[in-house]
Amino acid sequence: MRLLTDYARVRVPASAVLCSDSEGEHISVAFELWDDYAATVTVGESRATITGPSKDVAPRDGQHPTIMAMLATLDKLQAPQAGIALIGQTQIPPAVGLGARSAAIVAGISLVRELVGNPEDFSDADAFELAISLGASPARVPAIIQGGVSLSWNDGDVHRAVSIPQDSPLATTLLVAHRRSTTGSRYARGPVAALTHALTQDPQLLSSLCQRVITQGSDDKAVVYNGYFLEALHKAQWPAVFAGSGPAIVLFADLSPDLQKRFTGEGYVCIATSVANSRLDD
């Protein structure tokens, strides 16, 4: 397969894994908080120029996860290998539960799809499996690719997912000044079917259902501290849940300026957003 262009640009959204169950089902949501990546095919060495929260997180050479994903996708499509000049303007905070690394991997796959003209024989399902093989979260990738609310599960050795239509609820993400210090393999667990229904059909249920989405214990001080804050929000009937392993908290509400000021006084950064419904290639 040959390249149809030597330049491509994509946007990838933040994502949050809101809950899972013992059967391996996950609910993930994409938010209107975007990382922008542009790639140019070159004859030189691969390099990455990144601005924003992720600028110091990943290597700036061919080991950047987006460049590595691009090269793996080129190989998968049997397209010619080349040097990549990558420019990224990031907004997704890393290591807080909003899927910055998974977004970077999906961005690399999506950039190559653009470079080769979005071939019909390389589907979203193929991109899904490739992203997972490169280290992206299987719970997050469907939401990043399709937007909106996604339900994913394991079918034997195959990962499957469906995108669920819904109205776009407003949300506020609460961030603390520091990131996780551990890898964060634990994340919220709860009633998958009920929370899916609330997110997609009856948001009025969120305030009661989010209280049933509990989190497992963690050795990370940031997560433990925010766990107490999350409990306080639940006692006050706020529809809030950890984003993945935390410590970021997703609050399904549009905060007034006074409340934002109050949360800021508690040491949080408030990011107002909504569910991102558009696909990457729209």
TrEMBL record:
<feature type="domain" description="GHMP kinase N-terminal">
    <location>
        <begin position="73"/>
        <end position="148"/>
    </location>
</feature>
<keyword id="KW-0547">Nucleotide-binding</keyword>
<keyword id="KW-0028">Amino-acid biosynthesis</keyword>
<keyword id="KW-0808">Transferase</keyword>
<keyword id="KW-0067">ATP-binding</keyword>
<keyword id="KW-0418">Kinase</keyword>
<dbReference type="Pfam" id="PF00288">
    <property type="entry name" value="GHMP_kinases_N"/>
</dbReference>
<dbReference type="InterPro" id="IPR006204">
    <property type="entry name" value="GHMP_kinase_N_dom"/>
</dbReference>
<protein>
    <recommendedName>
        <fullName>GHMP kinase N-terminal domain-containing protein</fullName>
    </recommendedName>
</protein>
<dbReference type="InterPro" id="IPR020568">
    <property type="entry name" value="Ribosomal_Su5_D2-typ_SF"/>
</dbReference>
<dbReference type="InterPro" id="IPR014721">
    <property type="entry name" value="Ribsml_uS5_D2-typ_fold_subgr"/>
</dbReference>
